[in-house]
Amino acid sequence: MAHLAVDPGICGLKTMISAESENDRICAIRIESECEAVQALEADVGATDAYEAAFKLFLENPVYLAAARHCKHAACPVPSAIVKAVEVACGLALPRNVSMTVEK
Fold it and tell me: Which of 18, 36, 85, 91 shows a CA-CA span of 20 to 30 A to 24?
């Protein structure tokens, strides 16, 4: 199982993603978020094929296609975090933190 906490920045609408797989292929995803748009993602990505999420291009990726339907802000880091959670839960990536640092 993988758990990712996402602090998206200026909107302040924090998200917790949990991903679990029993067969390293189909991943069950749970999303708890203060953002209604992000919450709506769970209906589309709740059971995701790990190989499609990890290896499909953006315009074919089921996670990013769902984000295009639900998310209102293109810079939202949650879709990327969902893909990372799937990769870790299914053994396609090692668990390592990801960060963005904004400077102006």
Answer: 36
